[in-house]
Amino acid sequence: MDVIKRLPNEVETALSVSSLRNLPVSFCETLFGRGVLAEYGDSALVNRPGDPIRIALILSGKLRLYYENADGKRLTICRLEKGDLAGVVSLASESNTLYAEAEGVTRLWVIPKESLEETLYKDVNAASVVISELGRHLEKLVGEWIAFAFSTVEERILRYLNGHRKNREPVRISQQQLADEIGTAREVVTRALRKLNQNGVIITDKKGIRLL
């Protein structure tokens, strides 16, 4: 694959807000110069379990990573945003184990896994930065799982709502989507929302769910 001598402005902007921003310019140009642009519409599946590992710098939009069991029940693992490097957690694997779904129009700068591995072998300092990025992802995942494991359904719902409301506006989300986010059944979410409503913590209406 040919190497682009100068990275597109969109890639440079994403790198400037990334934990990779301190990498040597020559390293970034070599690694990301082998990338290609990929764009996905809202709710499009970017990766499925079993797909080959791809490394991607998020240029805009978000990726929701989630697990789905044999019964179709889903659990959101985390979200990646502009400047995050998707795929680094799976570097040691041959294929994906999670689904990745675009939230909003999402643009990625995709580089081959082999290119990253080859470049890291040649530059110890760059490898250290990428390992730090991997550690950041893992720390974020552990934090999410700790919060998930030791909280009630009501607490998980409130945590989600607090993290997604903007300017105190109602959060627009269906009960099934909310169940997928927190890893439970829709019927359980229905009961929990009713309880929170009765306790005066939230109001649910056609506009969404509003925290009081």
From TrEMBL:
Any GO BP? regulation of DNA-templated transcription
Residue ranges of domain HTH crp-type in the record: 151-212
On whether Metal-binding is a keyword of this UniProt record, the answer is no
Q: Which InterPro entries match?
A: cNMP-bd_dom, cNMP-bd_dom_sf, HTH_CRP, RmlC-like_jellyroll, WH_DNA-bd_sf
Top-rank lineage group of the source organism:
Bacteria
Q: Which residues form a coiled coil?
A: none
Q: What molecular functions are annotated in GO for this chain?
A: DNA binding
Sorted alphabetically, the keyword list is:
DNA-binding, Transcription, Transcription regulation
Query: Has the keyword 4Fe-4S been applied to this entry?
Result: no
Q: What is this protein called?
A: Crp/Fnr family transcriptional regulator
